[in-house]
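FW: tagging you since you asked about this chain on Friday. Here's the raw sequence from the shared folder, copied in full. Didn't touch anything.
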Amino acid sequence: MTTEIRLSRRALLASAAAFSAGTFLSGARAAAPIKVAGIHGSPVENAWNSVLHKALQDAAAEGVIEYVFSEGVSGTDYARAMREYAEQGHQLIIGEAYAVETEAREVAADYPETAFVLGSSGKEAGDNFGVFGTWNHDGAYLAGMLAGKMTKSNVVGSVGAMPIPEVNMLINAFGEGVKAVNPDAKLLVSFIGTFFDPPKAREAGLAQIDAGADILFGERIGTADAAKARGIKSVGSLIDYTPRYPDTVFANALWGFRPILNAALADVAAGKPVGKDYTAFGLLKEGGSDIAYVKGVAPADAEAAMEAKRAEIKAGTFEVPRNMEEPK
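HL: got it, structure written out here
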């Protein structure tokens, strides 16, 4: 995508978030900032955590919240961290329950006056335990459409963290996008068994290149390093990796957390239960996710077909398959 197009897409996402934030602020202008704690299972430089962290930092800079956080919190310490922040009087705790689904709900049940909204593969619980999924699969599908027309070997690779539902759905969506325009293409899939290990993701990517892949989808940080080392193209996930890898990453399946955060903050401010699923606020048609791509890398007809499909997704006339089964 040209710089102008990329900026216009981001402007749309930013304006949607700003509108939501403005709506929240207008209804709670006289209230004190909401005390929010973030518990990050990985360092905040990890792509997924960085998206949450940036949204929370921005809300704090605007005076909407007071924000404290812990990073690199292991699964064995996660419930303890939740309890400590609840005991300290934080009104809303943002984090991830992927490795502690049962324990997280137990903690929430012990602190009914504290709102918990966590990334999760499970369901909401009670009035105070809300969930959200990382559903940037729309952008992954669209990027797959470009990759399917670009591959010369008819083999593309994908490196993921572990086969949990959200990761599976993302990789499957990318593969479906590839297959939609190139039914003969083969998708290689590797899982590194952790959410943050860039060297391990790089090695997995190199192995896929050795197996014939000439385009990689990096669900994990480190995959683009393998693509860069071997001079092939790569697709990024969650954030825009193109500035960091300008000659390697040609497309990114973006995801924004601010619309989800704004919805949760609005509920907390209004005294409403947060025991709900906030995932939909992150969908492309809701302005929470999108694709960013470098125009001219993929064939012009591939870009046109992808943009037409993107318009269908935004209009609600096409829905990207949500296949959460482990990729074969």
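FW: The first helix runs from residue 3 to 27.
HL: agreed, and The chain has two domains: 3-135+256-286, 137-255+288-315.
FW: great, closing this out.
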